[in-house]
Each structure stands twice: as structure tokens, then as C-alpha cells.
Amino acid sequence: MRKMLVIALLFLFICGSLIASDLQETLEKLSGTAAEAYVSPIVSGFGTNLNGGWFHKSPKKKFLGLDFELGIVAMVTPFKDEDDHFSTTGTFSFDRATAESLAGNAPDEIFEATVDAIISHEFTVEMYGPTIIGPKDEHVVIELLSQTIMVEIPGEEPQSVDISSTIIDLQEARGLLEDFDYLPLVAPQLAIGTVYGTQLSVRYLPAYEIEDLGEIAYIGFGLQHNPKAWLPLPLPVDFCLAAFTQSLDIGDIVKTNALSYGINVSKTFGMRMLSVTPYAGLMAESCTMEFKYDYVLDITEDEISHIKFELDSENTSRLTLGSSFRVGVFNMNVDYNIGNYNSVTAGFAFAF
Predict the structure, then answer these.
(1) What is the pLDDT of residues 169-190, one digit of tens each?
(2) Strand pairing partners for 215?
(3) In this predicted structure, what is the pLDDT of residue 274?
């Protein structure tokens, strides 16, 4: 089990480090809608992974018994082809260096006031370019149409200043995970039951400190209940009602919460120590990722905007089809999940 923990922690550390180490620096150059569009692909990837791999057979209908599984689950979600670029209209705030360029037409006596007005103003712009999984040699582009802003001048009437159309290439905002066609995740999982047909499942990884970012921390748990424990009618298959919740935090920059619930069915063929169990499930699910960071307007002037936004995974439901194989004390399973984002999950566990 110690090796499993090491493997799971290593995978989570690698994924978290790759995403968070450069992401924080990139987001410090993005604001508003651009930041949301840039990170959106990993939200659905993480959500699909987190909500998968929990189930591979229904709990036994015993009133009180000991069923124990300890193992590791792996989840892989491919990205969609269209996830590597975005194009949208939204709001954007410019840093001081860009504001000084945009204020070039302002009279000298109100130049600084114009720069301050530009920094404090949210502009509606066209934005396009690579997302976080896009090409590393492309940059996010901001296209600003000409418009007029009002500049406040102490002791005087506000003055209007024309801002010319311009195209700004954000060199620091580029694809970070171009080589990733899919998002992997690995975690240890414990399942123990049953009490009146109910089984508890837990995922947990000890917090791991990343320099300059903070801790990666992951925990999840859920319950599966087999109603055959109290239903008097015989049924040809086992089924269970299930609900799971999880949280995954990557430093101080990303906080993730996932929830899934639904119904699963299974049927075991063979003996206790040598069997095969086909299974299927229909789950409703959600995942929310909160991003929090400081958008640097002018680091030399200590001008920083504190930004926080939440994004939801595109996956709201999934159909799971798979099979579990028991050989002695080893249990292996693999399944395919169909939703807005499809995924594959697999597990290996010691079963007692």
C-alpha cells in the first residue's frame, strides 16, 4: 500500500505542479473573461476524472459483514480537439505598461490621470488564442476597438480621451500543456462495508507542499447502499444507490469541489475467489473549480487586483459500462464513461 500511496502522490504532484507552477505566472497577466476561457478545459478534465472510478460492484446485502478493499484507481479524460483554442468577447483590464501605450494620444498635462483611468477601467474586447492546453508558440491576443473614456482630474471637470484601436499580443499567456492530449489522475481508494447493505468509500492523499504555491491536498468519500438488504422482492441483479463528494486543492490558486450521485447495477458470475462482475451506472455529477490569484497591474507600483472566479465542469451526467475481475485476493476493473467528456477509469485492489 505504501507504494500505491507513493505512485498516487507522485501523479497528483506532477499534474498539480505542471498546471499550477506556470499557471499562476500566466494568470497574473490575464483578467476577466480571458482568464476564464484560458483555464476552462482543465475544469471539465478534472471534474470528469474526480467523479469516476468509484464503483465496480454493488455492496453485499448483508445486515452486518466485513468486506474490505484497498487499492488504487486511475482516471484518464481526453481533451476535445476544440479545447486548445478559444475566441470570445468579454472584459479585460490593462496593466500600467499597456495603459501608457494606450494613453499615447492624451495631452501631457493629463497623461498620468489617463493612465490611471485606463488601469481602473474594464474594457470590452475581443480575445482569442491558445488555452492552457494550446500550442506553446502561440499567445493570447487582445483586440481593443476605438472608444472614449472619461478621465477624472482633481479640481477640474472630467475630460474625454479617445483610445485608439489596438491589438495586444500577451507574450506571457501561451499554452502550457501542449503535449497533453488527455488529463490523468491517480488516487488510493478504500472501501469498507457492509452495514445493512451500506458501504463506505474513501480517497485520501496526504498534503504535499509545493514551493511558492502551497499544498496539494485531496480527500473524497461516499456511500453506496444496496436496497436488497431490506427489499423483500428477489431481483435478478444487484443494484445500489450512491453518492460521493471530493475536494482537490492545488496550492492557494485552485480549489476544486466535486459531487456525484446516482444508481449502479452489477451481476457477479463465478465463485468468491474467481469471478467476473459486469456493471453499469447512471450518475448525475458536478464539479466547480475556484481560481484565486493576484492580477499584476504594475508590480513596481504595488498595484494589484485580487481576482477570484468559479467555473463549472461541462459534465453533468455519465453512463458507465465496465467489468470487474476477481482472482484470489486481487480485484481488477476497467470501465468507459460516456458524457459531455468521455473517460476511462481502471482500478486494482486487494479484496478481503
Answers:
(1) 888 888 887 777 888 888 889 9
(2) 209
(3) 94
Q: Which tops the pLDDT comparison, 28 or 328?
A: 328
C-alpha cell at 158: 472630467
The number of helices, as runs of H, and strands, as runs of E, in the chain is 4, 18
Q: Which residues of 64-94 are buried (b: 16+ CB within 10 A; e: fewer)?
A: eeeeebebbbbbbbbbeeebbbbeeebebbb
Residue closest to 240 by CA, chosen among 270, 272, 274, 196: 196
Please identify which residue in the block is written with the cell numbers 489617463.
114
Domain ranges for the chain, please list them: 2-79+180-351, 83-174
Rounded to an integer, what distance in angstroms lies between the CA atom of residue 246 and that of residue 255? 11
Full-model pTM: 0.84
For residue 191, what are the β-bridge partners? 69, 201
d(CA 298, CA 304): 7
Distances (CA, A) of 247 to 132, 205, 253, 313: 22, 11, 14, 14
The answer to whether residues 51 and 285 touch, using CB atoms and an 8 Å cutoff, is yes
For 74-98, what is the mean pLDDT?
A: 89
Give the end-to-end CA distance of the chain in Å, rounded to a whole number. Answer: 14
Maximal CA-CA distance, the chain:
89
Rounded to whole angstroms, the Cα distance separating 192 from 227 reads 17
Distance CA 215, CA 248 (A): 10
Burial class (CB in 10 A: 0-12, 13-18, 19+), 28: buried
How confident is the model over 29-59, as pLDDT tens digits?
A: 777 788 888 989 889 998 999 999 999 999 9
DSSP bridge pairs for 296? 304
Alpha-helix runs per DSSP H in 168-250: none
